[in-house]
Amino acid sequence: TSPLAWLRTRFYHLLIRLYFDPEFSVEEFTRGAKQAFSVVSKLLSQRKLDLLDELVSAEVLQVLKEKISLLPDNHRDALAADIDAIMYTTEGDIRIYYDDDGRKFVSILMRFWYLNGADLPDEVPGETKVFQIVFGDESTKEKRHLLTANYEFRREFTEGAKPEWTITRIEHPQLLE
């Protein structure tokens, strides 16, 4: 991350604490985002979209229903991320905005890098084969891929709104397109 981007995100963290939620914690948000990413990615992989109603916005859920039904099994398997397989997480963009009705929102884009053992071809663009683990002899190899995903979390901070984060964008490059 560039120093300017790091400084910008820290500035937005300060604004969130000052104007929206004095108890906002980047570490706690990141832990929750990782857990939500793991749960949602597994449910997507299992095609259990009806269980995503409370976690994902209706617009995103509608798009996912169309895309998931067209995915080959190996791409669907590659969507799933165990929380222990998340190698790196970082914030992308943070936005604070108001709608035409004066409602207040905060949106945080999170980027995840995770290992997955799905049977993907070696030439899948947008991912990197990290290593092969050899158990026993040379004939038994387990291939792992380092995959990326972007999930955007949004919360309304208008007085009286539910204090819940909702996923408003899900991207698994080269897998869910």
UniProtKB/TrEMBL annotation:
GO biological process: protein insertion into mitochondrial inner membrane from matrix
GO MF, one annotated term: ribosome binding
Domain of life: Eukaryota
GO cellular component: mitochondrial inner membrane
Membrane-spanning residues: none
Name this protein carries in UniProt: MAIP1 protein
Lineage: Eukaryota, Metazoa, Chordata, Craniata, Vertebrata
